[in-house]
Design brief:
37% of the residues lie in helices and 14% in strands. By secondary structure, it is an alpha/beta fold. It has a single domain, classed as SGNH hydrolase (Rossmann fold), CATH 3.40.50. It is globular and about 50 Å long. This is Sialate O-acetylesterase.
Length: 260
């Protein structure tokens, strides 16, 4: 006999810290899932495809059938462990293969039969009825490393981040960008990939509260495209460290301003 799952009990809104996950397949995750990845942290939830809160296990995303381990759960577990009074809610919105041009209002991405930007906004707004948006994680750009799209990437990315913050009424919400892959033994970066990387780094200077997580030393799946599961977990730690440093520097700036 099948029984319905018990409804998840949510904490007060201010104690439910939301993490919006955006980008393409290396944010969605393609790492191989093992039994340990199915063991949830007691204070980490995720929004399922139906928009319901459930215990967070991998795969967090459902963009494609090969969705697997990404950086999100490691990040969320560390965030939850940093403050025993909070619960963390993951809001999955990444879409495998999606170029930055598909992350514009009204645009559809055929590979996932979805509207990346519109869906991310809708899912985040639904989640924000229950919690408070604390950070946006972003890993995207592999689809834009060609010569022509890479030359347009900076401006499109800047517009995307500004629009996302505006529509979610979160002008200062931290954004953490994950660096493109630098897999051992892979060929040198193309000029297009260098442009995309430069655009990612530029966001940390051109927008407030943007951090950057390096990908040095991370390793790949046999497809030579996606980070493997262990590297995704390490990447989750790096996203969290970038977030922690960003938060610490913001608090230091705020304290300095209040003392003057």
């Amino acid at each position: 006999m099948l029984f319905a799952a018990e409804p998840v009990k949510l904490p007060p809104k201010e104690k439910f810290h939301l993490v919006l996950l955006t980008g393409q397949s290396n944010m969605a995750g393609r790492g191989v899932v093992t039994p340990e990845d199915k063991v949830p942290h007691p204070r980490v939830l995720m929004q399922n495809k139906a928009g319901e809160w459930v215990p967070a296990v991998d795969p967090v995303h459902y963009d494609k059938s090969m969705a697997g381990v990404g950086p999100a759960r490691t990040f969320a577990n560390l965030l939850a462990d940093s403050d025993p009074s909070i619960t963390v809610g993951l809001v999955p919105a990444a879409c495998g293969g999606s170029p930055i041009s598909s992350w514009e209002p009204g645009k559809k991405w055929e590979q996932t039969n979805s509207h990346p930007y519109d869906d991310a906004i809708a899912r985040a707004r639904k989640a924000m009825q229950d919690g408070t948006l604390k950070v946006i994680l972003f890993h995207q750009g592999e689809a834009d490393c060609g010569d022509a799209p890479s030359k347009l990437y900076h401006d499109r990315l800047l517009t995307f981040f500004k629009s996302l913050r505006t529509e979610l009424d979160a002008p200062e919400v931290p954004i953490i960008i994950g660096q493109l892959s630098k897999f051992p033994g892979s060929k040198p970066w193309s000029e297009g990939k260098k442009r995309v990387d430069a655009a990612h780094r530029a966001m940390t200077q051109e927008l407030p509260n943007v951090g950057f997580a390096e990908s040095d030393g991370l390793t790949q799946n046999p497809d030579n495209i996606h980070f493997d599961a262990e590297s995704q977990k390490e990447f989750g730690k790096r996203y969290y460290e970038a977030f922690r440093q960003l938060r610490a520097s913001t608090h230091a700036t705020d304290s300095g301003a209040s003392e003057r």
